[in-house]
Structure formats: C-alpha cells, structure tokens
Write a structure and sequence with these properties.
alpha/beta; Rossmann fold; Zinc Finger, Delta Prime, domain 3; 3 domains; 15 helices; 8% strand; binds adenosine-5'-triphosphate; binds magnesium ion
C-alpha cells in the first residue's frame, strides 16, 4: 500500500496501531498462546508463519523478536524481504555479515541462554526452490546462534525440508467482530466520528485483512468522518492503489508476483475484470509512462477482448506479460541513452 502513503501525508494508522506485544495481537489466539510458551521455553525453534495478507504475521514476528531479545532487539534482528532482494547469495552474505558483527558486539552477553540473533525472512515463498534448498544449509550452519522466522502467504510454496525444520503457524483471516472492535478503538483514539454500519462495510470489502481495513478507515476519516459514503469512495481508491501496484510489478518484469496479486484482487476482493482495466487506465495515466501511446493501445485491445467474452483471467495475465515487455523495452532504451 505504499502508494497510499503519499496521499495520507502523515503517519499511516496501520503502522501506528501495529501491536508491539504478543498479548496485544488481535485474534490468532492459539498461535499467540503457543508462541508465548515456546519463547519462555529453553529451546526456541525456528518458526514459519503462513497465511493471508494483513493478519498479523510480520507483527507477530517483530513481537517475538522483541520479547526474546529485550530492549536491544533491533540490533540483533535482521529483517529481510526475500522477494525484494532476490537470491540466496544475498541471504548468505547478509547472514554472514550479520554473524560477524554479532561476534564483535555480543561476547559480553553470552551468558544468556537465548539465541543471539533472529533473522526474519519475509515473503519467503517468493524464493525459488533452489534458493530455499541452499538456505537449508545456512539454517543448519547457523543454528547454534540464530533463529529464523520465515513468513509466507502460501505454505505450499515452501519446500518440505524447511517446513520440517520449523514450528509452523497458520494465520487465518480475522473475524468481523474483532476487526470492527479494533477499528472502533482507533476511531476513539483518533477522535473520529463513525457509523457502525460503515465499519461492517469495511469488513465486507476486506474480509479479515486488518491492514487493508485500517487503510480504508484512515482514508475515509480523511474525508471528514467514517460514513457509508466515505467508506464506499475509500474502497474505490484503495482498489485503485492495488491495481497500480499490479501494474508497477508487471512493468518491472515481476510477472508471477503481479499475476498472483491480480488473482487475489479478482478472487479474494471480488474486483471485476473491467474495473481492473478501468483502474489500470487511471493509474497508468498518473504514472507518466515513457510510452503512454503503447499502453493506451494495449488497454483498448484488452478492453475489446473482455467485452467480446474472452476468458478474463487468461486475458489479464496476457496483458501483464505484455506490460512486462513494454517495461523491458523502456529500461533498455534508458540503458542505451546512459
Ligand atoms: N492480528 C492483528 N492484530 C492487530 N493488528 C493487526 C493484526 N494483523 C494485522 N494488523 C494490522 O495490520 C498491519 C499489518 O499487519 P502485518 O504486517 O502483521 O500483516 P502480515 O500478516 O504480515 O501481512 P502481509 O502478508 O501482507 O505481509 C499492522 O501494522 C496492524 O496495524
Ligand atoms: Mg508481512
């Protein structure tokens, strides 16, 4: 949701209201209970958190790090995004680098029986199986002093040998009552007026994704108060921001990711394919592409294909592939100029 950040100006509420203690994480009760006793135990396992977006996986990982490592937790926690910085080579280098710094800084604290560092590897399901296999070695080699917390959306994308080395926790979509209560708490703290119905409306649009719910709430609040009308237009805006993200990924050549996000928009959030095209058009216009003409032709072609009844998901995936080609061409053109 980075594109929303600019619109909102100040601090995003989804960050401001990120719980910092395990006991404050909403729902996910079994996971929180199990984790609380695990981290009190003498041998802390590696962990794997799987589940849908905005349900508390990253939040919980940060809470675990804080509770295991105490005040200095930031220093001893390495938070990597497997999908941003691809490849096992980088994980290996960063892990090694981190390990050598750790040797210098923690000799005096050896007396505690905790692992000395925690490596959070977010979006681990974006790593290739080869990279995951290589990672398995790194896990073994560093197990004396490091605990890994892997985070993913799809457990099935994590190779079995990694799964079997971890305590696996499956996060689930948050129930309506708990999301609505959390949104009310935020409204009260922020002194924002709200209609009860508008909060359920937010839930229907986000289906248990707390981050998305809070983002819609904040956008609506920015329009004066949280009413059925402001929520409806915020849902439109946030849908557009998500489409923008899909388009940006496709242009950057990240086809698989963009397609997965597209499917999520259509299947999970119920966005219609024609709305997708409409939002894509608006977003692209504001992105100031190098070749807006090519983009316009492409949109017209796919608009026509959808209107004539072609299979929408296949068509939109093809559109993303074409955008990847446009993106590549413009990167090549830039490289030539430079
Ligand atoms: N269980 C929860 N309790 C309270 N707040 C939550 C919870 N889950 C998500 N949030 C809110 O949503 C924001 C994002 O949550 P988080 O980063 O933990 O999601 P995630 O499960 O890691 O999602 P993604 O798969 O997109 O990375 C948090 O900053 C917090 O405001
Ligand atoms: Mg996360």
């Amino acid at each position: 949701m980075s594109s929303l950040k600019g619109d909102l100006g100040g601090l995003m509420w989804s960050e401001k209201y990120r719980p910092s203690r395990l006991q404050d994480v909403v729902d996910q009760k079994e996971i929180i209970t199990a984790l609380t006793s695990l981290i009190r135990g003498s041998d802390v396992p590696h962990m794997l958190f799987a589940g849908p977006a905005g349900t508390g996986k990253t939040t919980t990982a940060l809470c675990v790090a804080r509770e295991l490592l105490g005040d200095d937790w930031r220093r001893d926690t390495l938070d990597l995004n497997a999908s941003d910085e691809r490849g096992i080579k980088m994980v290996r280098e960063r892990v090694k680098e981190f390990a050598s710094v750790m040797k210098l800084t923690t000799d005096s604290s050896k007396q505690h029986d905790r692992p000395f560092r925690i490596i959070i590897l977010d979006e681990a399901d974006e790593m290739t199986p080869d990279a995951q296999t290589a990672l398995r070695r790194i896990i073994e080699d560093s197990s004396k002093t490091t605990r890994f917390i892997f985070i993913c959306n799809y457990l099935s994308q994590i190779i079995e040998p990694i799964q079997s080395r971890c305590a696996v926790f499956r996060f689930t979509r948050l129930p309506e009552e708990e999301v609505v209560d959390y949104l009310k708490m935020i409204c009260e703290k922020e002194k924002v007026r709200y209609e009860e119905r508008a909060l359920s409306q937010i839930y229907s649009a986000t289906m248990g994704d707390m981050r998305h719910s809070i983002n819609i709430l904040q956008t609506a609040a920015g329009m004066g108060s949280v009413s059925v009308a402001t929520v409806a237009s915020s849902i439109g805006l946030s849908g557009r921001a998500r489409v923008g993200e899909v388009i940006r990924m496709a242009l950057a050549g990240r086809f698989n990711e963009s397609r997965a996000k597209l499917m999520e928009l259509v299947q999970v959030y119920g966005m219609s394919e024609t709305d997708f095209l409409r939002y894509a058009n608006q977003e692209a216009y504001e992105m100031k592409l190098d070749r807006p003409d090519e983009f316009a032709e492409l949109m017209a072609e796919y608009d026509y294909r959808l209107a004539s009844g072609a299979h929408p998901e296949i068509q939109l995936a093809a559109l993303l592939a074409q955008l990847g080609r446009i993106g590549l061409k413009s990167r090549e053109a830039k490289a030539e100029k430079a």
